[in-house]
TrEMBL record:
<dbReference type="InterPro" id="IPR036526">
    <property type="entry name" value="C-N_Hydrolase_sf"/>
</dbReference>
<protein>
    <submittedName>
        <fullName>LADA_0D09076g1_1</fullName>
    </submittedName>
</protein>
<dbReference type="Pfam" id="PF00795">
    <property type="entry name" value="CN_hydrolase"/>
</dbReference>
<feature type="domain" description="CN hydrolase">
    <location>
        <begin position="6"/>
        <end position="286"/>
    </location>
</feature>
<comment type="similarity">
    <text>Belongs to the carbon-nitrogen hydrolase superfamily. Nitrilase family.</text>
</comment>
<dbReference type="GO" id="GO:0003824">
    <property type="term" value="F:catalytic activity"/>
</dbReference>
<dbReference type="InterPro" id="IPR044149">
    <property type="entry name" value="Nitrilases_CHs"/>
</dbReference>
<dbReference type="InterPro" id="IPR003010">
    <property type="entry name" value="C-N_Hydrolase"/>
</dbReference>
């Protein structure tokens, strides 16, 4: 039995802030660059298109209306032309892409989800996931997701699963992927996430927490893990400071999240990017996860299925279901 060895790319890049068309153009350019460098899987961070709404960490909800409206206007339908353009590119270049984006609803002009799609090397959407539970201030922006996207996909480079940001803290969500034979785990992250105001000289606790969560998934599942974070560039920083001058100092103090890779033993491997925009690369040799399973396999012999039972509902949630027999419809004459 032999498993694939593949080159993975994680795009530690900034969107063109609140500009979907320009951000998709940027994504296409970076996908081409990563493909030219031999990457077979190319990952983008949490809500890369058109941005992660960092302003909700500072501004009062009553002051967020205009930016929320702009975010809604620039968000994507999962079956819209922007995602389709990435699908076509994947088919052309024969690469897989995981893309985080703000997803619009066709049932409500004000409903958004924090979502990702995993696109195959023939341009098909393999997985479409909406973040199960927005975290902390994120509840001001995004609706609850569903279990439909809790899926591990069989690809030519291995079995791939992904979770968004704080979902990587949810033991049941993580195990639901591990139990599907996940070999490559992608975690998508924002440019920064604050639980209190930043202070000069203070260590960034979010980076440490991210590393713990990523290493935990890798070590427990014996998976190769991608940590792909947004980059907060000068243009985004100046936009936020101009929009919210009262918090300009805080925007200057926030640090950058880190993009990196972790092996099945829980140790970092490959490139690391933090304070500069770019693409991080790493080679995943999935054969190296096999020996790690010998001493602990939480989806195999190291689990007690007779004691623990986990049921996951992967039914997509919809706002309404109409039951109607075609034979009962009334035919109305037309003039």
């Amino acid at each position: 039995m032999s498993f694939p060895v593949s080159k993975i790319a994680a795009c530690h890049i900034a969107p063109v802030w609140l500009n979907t068309a320009a951000t998709i153009e940027k994504a296409i350019a970076w996908i081409r660059e990563a493909a030219d460098n031999g990457a077979q899987l190319i990952c983008f961070p949490e809500t890369f298109v058109p941005c992660y709404p960092v302003w909700t960490q500072f501004k009062s909800p009553v002051d967020n209306g205009k930016l929320f409206q702009k975010l809604c206007e620039q968000s994507l339908y999962v079956n819209g032309p922007e995602i389709f353009a990435i699908q076509q590119l994947c088919a052309e270049l024969k690469v897989l892409v995981c893309l985080g984006f703000n997803e619009r609803s066709r049932s409500s002009v004000g409903c958004l989800w924090n979502s990702y799609v995993l696109i195959s090397d023939d341009g098909k959407i393999l997985a479409h996931h909406k973040k199960l539970m927005p975290t902390f201030f994120e509840k001001l922006i995004w609706s609850h997701g569903d279990g439909h996207g809790l899926e591990v996909c069989d690809t030519k480079i291995g079995r791939i699963g992904a979770l968004i940001c704080g979902e990587n803290t949810n033991p049941l969500a993580k195990y639901s992927l591990i139990a599907q034979g996940e070999q490559i785990h992608i975690s998508l992250w924002p440019p920064f996430f604050l639980t209190k105001r930043p202070e000069e000289g203070e260590e960034d606790g979010f980076g440490h927490a991210t590393m713990i969560r990523a290493a935990c998934q890798a070590f427990e599942g014996k998976t190769f893990t991608v940590v792909c974070s947004n980059f907060f560039d000068d243009a985004a920083r100046e936009f936020c400071k101009a929009d919210d001058p009262a918090n300009a100092d805080a925007y200057d103090l926030v640090g950058q999240s880190t993009t990196l890779f972790i092996g099945p033993d829980g140790k970092p491997i490959g490139d690391v990017l933090k304070d500069e925009e770019g693409i991080a690369y790493c080679t995943f040799d999935l054969n190296k996860s096999v020996p790690c399973k010998q001493f602990q396999d939480v989806a195999g012999y190291y689990q007690r299925y007779d004691i623990f039972k986990l049921t996951v509902d992967r039914t997509p949630s919809v706002p309404v279901t109409f039951l109607e027999e075609a034979s009962s419809k009334i035919e109305y004459p037309s003039p």
